[in-house]
Design a protein that fits this description.
The chain is an alpha+beta fold. It has 4 domains: about 100 residues, conserved putative lor/sdh protein from methanococcus maripaludis s2 fold (Beta Barrel), CATH 2.40.420.20; about 90 residues, Beta Barrel (Elongation Factor Tu (Ef-tu), domain 3); about 70 residues, RNA polymerase II/Efflux pump adaptor protein, barrel-sandwich hybrid domain (OB fold (Dihydrolipoamide Acetyltransferase, E2P)); about 60 residues. Helix content is about 30%, strand content about 35%. The strands form 7 sheets. A 6-stranded antiparallel β-barrel has the order 4-13-16-15-14-17. It has a 4-stranded antiparallel sheet with strand order 1-22-21-20, with helices on one face. A 4-stranded antiparallel sheet has the order 5-12-10-7, with no helix packed on it. The longest helix has about 40 residues. The protein is elongated.
Amino acid sequence: MIMIRTLRQPLTVALLLALTACGRSNPPAREVATKPAESESNTSGLKMDAAALKAAGVVLQTLQPASVSEQLRAPGEVVDNAYNATLITPRVVALVIRRHAKLGDEVPAGAALVTLSSVEVANAQADLRVAQQEWQRVSALGREAVSGRRINEARVALDRAAATARAYGLPGTAPGRANGEFTLTAPHAGRITEDEFVVGERIEPGKPLFRLVNEAVVWVDAKLPAGTVSRIAPGSAATIVFNGQRLNGKVQRAAHRTSDATRNAIVRVEVPNRGDRLHGGDFVEVFFDAGDANNAAQSQLTVPNDAFVQLQGDTVVFRRTASGAIEPVPVRTGEVIGDRTVVREGLKAGDAVVVQGAFAIKAQMLKSQLGEAE
């Protein structure tokens, strides 16, 4: 028994010494493990001196709060002024005999557009001619030779025949011949923007043959987030930019419905189309003079639109840190005001951010990260 106790004591001492030695070797292992973490944190920033920034075309700007009630920018589409547009349609079944105008023509009021032929119109022309001749005959005879009732009947017959002719789009007087031909004319000056028929085609009543539009004044439908529409007052000024040209417009009205798909609302602008520069379907940019009584004195941070890039699914702005490195900062954006965008979260006053050359910084940052991955 004495021998066993003697042997156990040396074994216990040896085990304690081994554990102590292992414990002393752990700190270096932890120190090595922290080095990759430091290296990984450094990849979020990009070191570039002033010469490198200049060579890459990078421009930095220090952010300061500013008023955001200057302008709102929105995409817009030119549409026809519906108050100055007319569909040219027959009011009776007819055949197209001759065309007098074609797509793109600019025509004056009263210009002949198309000649049609119809059996019903021929009957109406004949009835009108007979009624007019009868009225002329009884009127010439007078009440001494014709009864008052006969004169009244002739007058009513003429009025009825003239009304039927006008309902078919004919003049209220008898034509030279009752051949069923009649011509549709331009009710006002304008340009033919649609042309939907061929000669010899049978046309049903109400089918549009031409669309005649007076383009002296056009509409522009601008799309804005529903929350910003209230800042734009009817009658306020707006500026339309198309192909580098600026045109003045006036806000006509705002739609009282928000799109279910885009959550945008339409603001309609009336634009004098001097020089015939705008046409239906053109896409333009619209700048509104906007204001908000509740936020008139409020200043917010705005960043040039070119400063924003997409990085790993986030909208980011590149900011220079106190150590001089360039780092990406995820931001939450607000309204677009002219060529600047409000930043709700992510940046603060005094931050120096990249306002030009953001894509060059992004490319350099991705390149450096790929190099470290290798």
